[in-house]
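ingest -> validate -> predict -> emit
validate: passed (alphabet ok, no gaps, 162 aa)
predict: started
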Amino acid sequence: MPYAVESAYAGAIGPDALKAFVQAAHDLGIAVILDVVYNHFGWQDLALWQYDGWYQTGVDRDGQPKDFGGIYFYQDGRYWTGYGDRPDYGRPEVRDYIAGNMRMWLQDYRIDGLRLDATSLIRNVYGDDNQANDLPDGRGCCGASTKRPTPASRGSSSSPKT
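emit:
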């Protein structure tokens, strides 16, 4: 599944369980905000990790051998976030993947909003204010698809009360 609920957070139950939860919350007039993580992707259960079978072997920040995550991940010092490997935001495929994922949560699951985790690590290698560490490709990467769909575009007139 190219997009999925993290297995540790109800992914084993299946997507219908999350959709039912969101609908139940909406029925009670409660909006649902989903925490999403685009500053890194974990390799444990990620279909994109070495997706095409290619990867580069190198050394990590501590000088230890490392298998980098294939063409959709940075292959140099920009890979590191402290949490997992950073995708290469300069690749249109990565940007499209993130935008598509955002659309899926908002349209298919009817999530009311997204909280983007650690955005400083999307725009800057170390998440600091040092412009020398900026990731120009990360700036604006997640902003283009955050427009909330209207109830009509969702296929339902039911929406949470505000």
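The chain has one domain: 14-153.
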